[in-house]
Amino acid sequence: MIDQAQDFLDESEAIYALLENLSDKQMEQETDFKGWTINAIMRHLHIWNMAAYWSLTEPAKFHDFFKEAMSGMKGQTSMRFFEANYLDNLAGADLLKTWRDFYQKIAPEFGAADPAMRVEWAGPSMSVRSSITARLMENWSHAQAIYDVLGIKRHNEDRIRNIVMIGLNTYGWTFKVNREEAPQPVPYLKLTAPSGAIWKYGDESTEERIEGLAEEFCQVVTQTRNIADTDLQVTGPNATRWMAIAQCFAGGAETPPAPGVRSIKTG
Predict the structure, then answer these.
(1) What's the pLDDT tens digit per position in 191-239?
(2) Which of 41, 43, 67, 80 has the smallest CB count inside 10 Å?
(3) Which residues pair with 210 in a beta bridge?
């Protein structure tokens, strides 16, 4: 199994461990992600896991699903309703079991496929490796809202390096989707991994720099935290603008959460 498929599986299992003992009532808690409930988040993760699987195994089915999804989704509210209707309002323990059974099925499928093979997606096609890495990123980022609403401090593993790489590789995309020219040079990254290892990327001699915890960098590029709510050290105008609008996921330009909006709930 390629590393990214195993990392996706391991992250999914960590999320399942977080959720497996929640009651059906707790699954209906609203999170700080656009007011989505935990059920809504999990339906979203499951349905797009299914779409990724179809893009690998049944491209025609993926195209049919995507066409239906695009006609049924107009904005975040409609997305929630489309996904709930598509899954017949699957919720609670049944939703968790269905999601888990499916991610345990798709991880080995992606792990055994040619990592360089192209698969279709909403935008340009991408490699099998990139597809399963994107699923890791989306599951990781949406789960942050669940950790927050449950008041649980997340303990990350070094598999978030995959998300660091997506964040770095989408530097140009962040500016493009915001209709700006990507300024050069790309900032130098010096990030501390959950294990304590130091990850370095780019030209160390540049004055454009971002330093700090890798998990906080991941939170900013996935828009689960405002840069002001982290301890990242950001130096230079390029780095400052990037961290203000960072977006490592596809779709139209999204505004990062305002300072203080996304945080661990206490009390």
Answers:
(1) 999 999 999 999 999 999 999 999 999 999 999 999 999 999 999 999 9
(2) 67
(3) 189, 234
Assess contact for 15 and 244: CB atoms under 8 A.
no
Per-residue model confidence as pLDDT tens digits over 105-154: 999 999 999 999 999 998 789 999 999 999 999 999 999 999 999 999 99
Give the contacts of 150 (CB within 8 A, at least 6 positions apart): 18, 29, 265
**What DSSP string describes 179-228?**
T-PPPSSPPEEEEE-TTS-EEEES-TTSS-EEEEEHHHHHHHHTTSS-GG
| Dist CA 42 CA 27 (whole Å) | 9
204, 188 Cβ separation under 8 angstroms? yes
What the block records as the tokens of 182 is: 């990507």
Q: Cα(71)–Cα(118) distance, rounded to whole angstroms? A: 25
Q: What are the structure tokens assigned to 236, written together?
A: 């230079």
How many angstroms separate the CA atoms of 49 and 46, rounded? Answer: 5
Among candidates 214, 189, 211, 187, which has minimal Cα distance to 200?
A: 189
Angle of helix 38-57 versus helix 128-150 axis, rounded to 10: 170
Output the six-digit token pair for 248. Answer: 């490592």
